[in-house]
Amino acid sequence: MSTNCKCACGEAPKLIFACSGAADVGAVADQAARKMTMDGAGKMFCLAGIGGRVSGIMATTAAADAILAIDGCPLNCVKNSLEQAGFAEFNHLQLAELGMEKGKTAVSQDTIAAVAAKGAEMLGGGACGAG
Amino acid sequence: MKIQILGTGCPKCKKLAEAAETAAKAAGVEYTIEKVTDINEIMTFGVMMTPALVIDGEVKTVGKVPSPDEIGKMMK
């Protein structure tokens, strides 16, 4: 894949979907996805667009170079949403795997950075896409 | 039928426009074709990769140039 990002043509993005749920772990998942985007590890994308079957979001997701699903808790809403939309191949990070328990996790720079680092490791390499 | 080609104007975008026109003519349908080149407008479709093909408001493909035959099937 080219590293020249001047044109959106042919640059398959690495997409990140976070549960962005109401609980503390949802907030950590959301902010970690935003941090990963700012750090260039991938691009956060709208999970609601998957739920709503928005054609542009569905088609872009289908064309992604890699996908990372970040779930805050074992309900696995991101994983289930992607699977129900027909996506089978994606990396899945659940915060419980990092010892972050729902209702007992601080939404702090440390927890956000830990999730972002693990997510970046799972996606691997740099990322480039439109916009 | 309204066909929109999303892309900033690179050769792949032009090829996609040509393929879509070929497909529309082969299908014998009335159509309009619009090239959307503004990146901000492209993003409003939820598309992060170009070229993209939109038929009657629905994004059909992203990041590739399908053949006229493939596009023809999408028009049905």
Q: Enumerate the strands of the largest sheet of chain B in spatial order, edge to edge or round the barrel.
A: 2-1-3-4
Oligomer: heterodimer
Using only C-alpha atoms, the radius of gyration of chain A works out to 14 Å
* Helix-strand makeup class of chain B: alpha+beta
Q: Using the alpha-carbon principal axes, give the shape of chain B.
A: globular
Find the count of extended strands of chain B (DSSP E, 2+ residues): 4
Q: How would you characterize this protein structure?
A:
The complex is a heterodimer of chains A (131) and B (76). Chain A has 131 residues and is an alpha/beta fold. Chain A has 5 helices and 4 strands; from the N terminus they run E-H-E-H-H-E-H-E-H. A 4-stranded parallel beta sheet of chain A has the order 2-1-3-4, sandwiched between helices. The model of chain A is unreliable at 1-6 and 127-131 (pLDDT under 50). With 76 residues, chain B is α+β, with helices and mostly antiparallel strands. Chain B has 3 helices and 4 strands; from the N terminus they run βαβαββα. Chain B is globular, with a radius of gyration of 11 Å. Chain B starts with a strand and ends with a helix. The mean pLDDT of chain B is 95. Chains A and B meet through helix 3 of A and helix 2 and strand 4 of B.
